[in-house]
Amino acid sequence: MNWFTKTFSSTIGRKIVMSVTGLFLCSFLVVHLLGNLTLFRNDGGEAFNLYSHFMASNGVIRAMEIVLVLGFLFHIYDAIVLSRRNKGARPVNYAENHPEQNTTSWASRNMGLLGTVILVFLIVHLWNFFVPARFGSLDPVLIENVEYDNLYTSVVEAFKNPIYVLIYVLGMIALAYHLIHGFQSAFQSLGLTHKKYTPFIQIFGFAFSVLICLGFAIIPLYFFFTQQ
Ligand code: HEM
Q1: Is any atom of ligand 1 closer than 6 Å to the C-beta of 128?
Q2: Counting atoms of ligand 1 from 1, which one is nearest the CA of 155?
Q3: Residue 60 Cα, ligand 1 centroid: separation in angstroms?
Q4: What is the pTM of this model?
Q5: Residue 91 pLDDT more than 90?
Q6: Which of 4, 112, 114, 188 has the most CB atoms in a 10 Å sphere around its CB?
Q7: Domains of the chain, earliest start first
């Protein structure tokens, strides 16, 4: 095994990969939410359809999509390996176990469960929008005499369905808890801890997680209650 494979398959190497991919996925969430907020413009979906078209046709964005998929895959794979290793390190449970006193929060003890709920959300989500946008045929819409896919209508239609609204809202609650723990944990794994800065990172991570997830969750709720 060469040094590279050795480093990135060690526990600390895997934690570093999880932290870097996790922070990269956070930056994706910011860009994705900013684009999705164009749904609230009162323009019949014009800005949103133009934004989606740009995302689907721009070469740089398409290349970043490959990085994004790799980011998700490495993040999930290393999470599974690390949690197996943790279980293997203590195959027999403590005679007396009070998990609520052992670790800092409910989220930190349930990252696997939260991650699984997010993965289910993501599969439903990609099936809703990404698959029809890239591989299906959406209704066309004319914007300044040019034909674009009408992804805006797909969003409006999807969020008339209360089951989708529920899946999205539950997905965002899970994502918020996952990020609240994951954000500060990433800095810890990267060794970026400091008496002075760590409280700021924790407060920033909390505000970031809540605001991003609220921003996403408002979208299905808004369309459900305004477009029936
Ligand atoms: C209500 C909230 C959301 C809406 C309305 C929404 C909408 C969309 C749409 C329309 C697409 C297809 C874009 C295209 O292919 O042109 C898309 C793609 C995608 N979404 Fe979302 N999204 C939401 C939340 C999220 C969240 C929370 C995540 C991650 C946890 C996420 C991850 C993705 C990914 C990975 C893709 C495929 C990559 C891409 O096209 O950039 N989305 N979303």
Answers
A1: no
A2: 5
A3: 17
A4: 0.90
A5: no
A6: 114
A7: 9-87+106-226 (1.20.1300.10)
